[in-house]
Model the fold of this input.
Amino acid sequence: MSTQVPASDSAAVPGAGRNRPASRWVEPLLLLGPAGLWLVLLLVLPTLIILELSLVPGIKPGGIVNPVLTQFPNYAQIFDPIFVSVIGRSLLFAIGVTLICIVFGFPVAYWIAVMSPKQWRNLLLLGFILPLWTSSLLRSYAWITILRPTGVLNTVLKALRLPELDLLNTGILDFLKFLPNSAGWATPIIDSWVNLSLAVFIGMSYSLLPYMVLILYASLEKLDLRLLEAASDLGASPKQTFWKVTVPQTLPGIAAASLLVFITGLGDFVDPELLGGVSSMTAARLIYNQFLGATQNWGFGSALSMVLIMAVSVAIALLIKYGGDSAEV
Done:
């Protein structure tokens, strides 16, 4: 007795096989469509508008947008020594804050991830990121209250009969008086770059330190403690264990955290504006002045914005390509 094998559904229904490829694109589009539309409207299109404005020489509000593709005067203006010093100061602020956050954030993250009791770790992390629940503007004004000449810090120092500090108006070279300002390298340009406001460093480090700790904690939580024990059993000192075992395992997290802090510090506006004053002009403040300040030079502000966008994009691309797992932390 012969048995007849039933035909498949695709054979029974004409055209069913041809509809499958189309249906495979419907679900991804429905899932990614809202987020993609959001990114296009609020990221891609504004970036393209900024790029177009950066090609228009001297455009102001209400002006005619007529891009010039043969010359790039707005981009050439960036290389003016005054603006180069502003960009250099922004880089120094970002690099300095990144180093400060690494120095202070790594021990905290290590203690929470490795040494603290497990039942307290989530609570400790919550307590450490509580300042992020408040506005950055309020945090900056709080630091002004603490650091101003009649503020909390000097009140405590005066009660202890210690010398008072005016950190709001003090730069690094002013604070480190053992550095000779009259040395050959202390030219006015270098002095304006290096003598950065201590108050800005304090405010930016305080604002960005929780981000450093969170990412380092996520990396240190995966640390293989058996390797630390093995290194100790083989006679390695704590210093050798740290540099040869702990740091290599957490290097992707250090790279990711450093990049996040650096990018955020490079574009920070509130802390330099409130804590630094006129002498702490940064790229973010310069862009603000071109759009909303008295200058009203939208072309130059757009060109400077595009330079920062490209620099950040290149840094992220290099991290994704050469950073390994750091981009996934």
Notes: Confidence is low (pLDDT under 50) at residues 8-12, 178-190. The radius of gyration is 27 Å.
